[in-house]
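Need tokens for this chain, all 140 residues.
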Amino acid sequence: MKKYFLVLLLSLTAGIISAQVDTMRVMDATVTDPNADTTVYSNVEQMPAPAYQMGAYFSKNVKYPQDAKMAHQQGTSYISFVVEADGSISNVTLVKSAGTASMDREAMRVITAMPKWNPGMQSGKAVRVKMMQGVKFSLL
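Here are the structure tokens for all 140 residues:
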């Protein structure tokens, strides 16, 4: 009798543990909107635009890397990024180097830190749009 009781107890315990594991998996699952448009456009009816003056933003925020300045290096880093449907910046990628890693890192830092833009619009709906921006480093 004790043997049958022990087998029954172990079976019930295994079932409870299994149910807890399944419950944890469900809790960890990410809920996504199946109707959300994840397409990244390159051209839309109304292109994204910053809600601020880009020239002033770059003048205020770009810090010329000291090593590049000391070596009198100049150049332009070309950075691609996505303006999300909410205007935030994502997927920041170096497309063409300015010639030094420090200038490229600074360009990517400044692009990543940009405030939200006015998003691109397609058929009256805010959408994700891929953009490119050059960040020029020049000594006067």
